[in-house]
């Protein structure tokens, strides 16, 4: 087995477009869950609405890409309003069920065969990122750092996406230090106390849902641009669960938690994948224990275990502060 | 690659006359429109030869073909597959060429529009039979959906009771409950498939092992977590981790394919009662569900343990102080809930088939039923699940069938908006 291949492959994923997309989605979720204590299990829906607005507007209705991106972000505001009005008054566990159901409903509608002409059914939309590709200044040969390779367009997307992520981290750092941010944290800690101070809790929660949702939509848009494709399978319930894992690894309610979480998550996810893939191909693990099909599942089996153990033994994540985490039975 | 005819697939599934659902890959140099015309009034269905079928592109005919002695037709489209990609074609049947006395069941369905996305053959299905009387057809469809809905509702109720009782007694929203349902189907299937045991034995063992699995869930995971004082929301996320873990272990064991039980001593060939079809298998499965639900209801109402369960559901602290062993009640709830979920999984498996993630797929329906009825209430869970089952099946009378689950999800959200405690739940603060 070539350990260097495993390592460099893992590093490529840890910095690559996927990690950047999950980082953005987790930054949005951090505002919901980390700072406001909203258990939003519908983050995938925000991503999907953003990605699909861009994909469908450009491919189906032949609109300008940049205008479509703006519409995608606005669509997330709309979704936050539609989702928030009925659900934000609910207790945390009910909110989780309602948002997960809403996200799945959105996904099934957008992926429905009867809307094939608009949204392309299970194939989704593709071939809409040409305007983005034409902006790519990186030389076509791609970029190489020793054994680590990135394709030209991927590298461009990474630069754009990670810059956006860092910018958002800065903005969130400032926002959470502001009085507005303190109210959000107050809601997380004790909703009734904030209410008794005369703040409109519902209103603040809605602002939090909108802000995080728009950042989620940005993640969906970046996902669409990176692969030049949006499909219903990209935005399944598991996507939301993975975003949670990213956030919880890095540490909720920490500005750089999502960044660290995304890098670590994808480093290990892809590292494990490559390791088991090579181990089965080189017959380090005999076939009767694990075939190469089964090897591709090991990373998710480990992921499930890690999520459980993390939540049990270190709910604050790697960089989090236990006092900051409002995971209790409210 | 197979053409994704998501729009046609449900149709192909429902229609008694179907085009080949898995088209042959042989001819890679042309794309063919293929199908078989069968007259389903006869048993076995009689082929319908000599029917002209034409293919049009933007109004102009580009190819045509005639069904052969076996009722099959295969029409090669002109041009290389690569040029055909992305083109939209319309397949039409010439109803004048149908033999005397035959007609399409649905006279309006003479043409299908298809966009070519892959180079696979394009399957097309037409239903041939007696002309349907519109009002009769509506009654038939409504009653058929109602029957399907009641059955789905019973299965969901069986699967949901464990979730609801666990929530009632411990407050845990268990996202890994879908995997308890899958567990029953997988264990039953493995016992039968690998150990060659007879179906009934495998099914019974599957139910018992599901109960053991529920027991293991509580003893090895949830009870220690309760002891540590882990918060409910943290436990909920733990259950998500458990769900991801179990689902992938299941796929590790049985693969990604869908499986069918073999050797089930209940026939699939439907009885025809009036114009409604119901298979003996579905019927007896529904009877089993109903019997179990009645037994559980009586047990909860009459037995000491049942009363203790309701007491713990109501107020754990008060129940403990009046001498009820809360941990024992919770453990019983896990065992019974696990066994019920497993039973539901096996019955689901023998009727619809199963794969490693079907429990996860129906989990949201289960949640919908439980929430509609009122989380933690037993009667509410049963009533809510039945309503959800009916609604899911009935909605496909109006909506495209692929959207039938969406109805349940929308209702779930509406219930939370209007009456969050559910139809039978006690009003309490949940917001």
TrEMBL record, chain A:
Q: Which Pfam families match?
A: BPD_transp_2
User: How does the entry describe its membrane topology?
Assistant: Multi-pass membrane protein
Indicate the transmembrane segments per the record.
14-31, 38-59, 65-85, 155-176, 209-230, 242-269, 296-313
Residue ranges the record marks as coiled coil? none
Q: Which Gene Ontology cellular component annotation is one that this UniProt entry carries?
A: plasma membrane
Q: Which InterPro entries does this entry report, sorted A to Z? A: ABC_transp_permease (IPR001851), LivM-like (IPR043428)
- Mind listing the GO molecular function terms for this protein? branched-chain amino acid transmembrane transporter activity
Q: Give the protein's recorded name.
A: Branched-chain amino acid ABC transporter permease
């Amino acid at each position: 087995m070539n350990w260097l291949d495993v390592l460099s492959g893992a590093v490529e994923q840890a910095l690559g477009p996927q990690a950047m997309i999950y980082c953005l989605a987790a930054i949005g979720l951090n505002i919901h869950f980390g700072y406001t204590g909203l258990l939003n299990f519908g983050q995938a829906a925000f991503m999907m609405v953003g990605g699909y607005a861009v994909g469908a507007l450009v491919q189906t209705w032949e609109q300008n890409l940049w205008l479509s991106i703006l519409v995608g972000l606005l669509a997330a505001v709309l979704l936050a309003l539609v989702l928030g009005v009925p659900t934000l008054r609910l207790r945390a566990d009910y909110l989780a069920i309602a948002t997960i159901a809403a996200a799945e409903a959105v996904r099934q509608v957008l992926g429905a065969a009867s809307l094939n002409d608009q949204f392309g059914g299970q194939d989704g939309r593709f071939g809409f990122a040409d305007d983005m590709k034409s902006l790519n200044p990186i030389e076509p040969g791609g970029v190489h750092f020793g054994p680590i390779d990135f394709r030209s367009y991927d590298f461009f997307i990474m630069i754009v996406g990670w810059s956006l992520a860092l910018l958002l981290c800065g903005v969130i750092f400032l926002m959470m230090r502001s009085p507005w941010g303190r109210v959000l944290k107050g809601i997380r800690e004790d909703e009734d106390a904030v209410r008794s101070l005369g703040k409109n809790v519902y209103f603040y929660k809605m602002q939090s849902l909108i802000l995080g949702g728009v950042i989620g939509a940005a993640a969906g848009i970046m996902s669409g641009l990176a692969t030049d494709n949006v499909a219903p399978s990209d935005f399944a319930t598991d996507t939301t669960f993975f975003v949670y894992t990213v956030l919880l690894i890095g540490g909720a309610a920490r500005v750089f938690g999502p960044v660290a979480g995304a890098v670590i998550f994808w480093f290990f996810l892809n590292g494990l994948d490559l390791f088991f893939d090579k181990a089965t191909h080189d017959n380090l693990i005999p076939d009767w224990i694990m075939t190469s099909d089964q090897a591709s599942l090991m990373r998710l089996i480990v992921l499930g275990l890690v999520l459980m153990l993390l939540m049990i033994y270190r709910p604050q994540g790697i960089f989090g502060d236990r006092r900051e985490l409002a995971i209790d039975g409210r | 690659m197979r053409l994704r005819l998501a729009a046609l697939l449900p149709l192909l599934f429902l229609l008694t006359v179907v085009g080949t659902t898995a088209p042959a890959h042989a001819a890679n140099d042309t794309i063919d429109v293929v199908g078989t015309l069968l007259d389903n009034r006869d048993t076995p269905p009689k082929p319908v030869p000599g029917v002209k079928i034409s293919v049009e592109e933007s109004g102009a005919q580009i190819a045509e073909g005639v069904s052969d002695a076996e009722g099959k037709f295969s029409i090669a489209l002109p041009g290389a597959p690569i040029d055909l990609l992305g083109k939209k074609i319309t397949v039409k049947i010439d109803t004048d060429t149908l033999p005397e006395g035959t007609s399409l069941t649905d006279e309006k369905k003479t043409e299908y529009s298809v966009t070519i996305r892959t180079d696979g053959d394009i399957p097309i299905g037409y239903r041939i039979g007696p002309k349907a009387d519109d009002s009769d057809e509506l009654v038939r469809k409504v009653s058929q959906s109602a029957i399907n809905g009641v059955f789905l509702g019973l299965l969901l109720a069986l699967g949901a009771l464990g979730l609801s009782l666990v929530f009632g007694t411990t407050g845990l929203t268990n996202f890994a409950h879908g995997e308890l349902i899958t567990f029953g189907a997988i264990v039953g299937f493995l016992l039968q498939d690998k150990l060659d045991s007879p179906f009934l034995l495998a099914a019974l063992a599957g139910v018992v092992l599901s109960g053991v699995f529920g027991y293991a869930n509580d003893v090895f995971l949830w009870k220690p977590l309760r002891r540590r004082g882990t918060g409910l929301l943290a436990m909920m996320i733990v259950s998500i981790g458990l769900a991801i873990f179990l689902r992938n272990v299941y796929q590790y064991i049985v693969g990604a394919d869908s499986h069918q039980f073999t050797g089930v001593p209940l026939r699939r060939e439907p009885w025809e009662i009036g114009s409604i079809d119901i298979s003996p298998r579905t019927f007896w499965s529904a009877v089993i569900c109903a019997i179990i639900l009645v037994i559980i209801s009586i047990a909860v109402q009459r037995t000491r343990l049942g009363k203790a369960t309701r007491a713990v559901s109501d107020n754990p602290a008060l129940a403990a102080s009046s001498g009820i062993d809360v941990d024992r009640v919770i453990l019983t709830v896990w065992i019974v809930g696990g066994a019920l979920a497993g039973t539901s999984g096996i019955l689901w498996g023998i009727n619809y088939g199963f794969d490693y993630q079907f429990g996860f797929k129906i989990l949201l329906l289960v949640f919908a039923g439980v929430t509609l009825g009122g989380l933690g209430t037993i009667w509410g869970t049963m009533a809510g699940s039945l309503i959800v089952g009916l609604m899911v099946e009935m909605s496909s009378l109006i909506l495209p069938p692929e959207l039938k689950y969406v109805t349940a999800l929308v209702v779930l959200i509406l219930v939370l908006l209007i009456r969050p405690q559910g139809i039978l739940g006690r009003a309490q603060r949940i917001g």
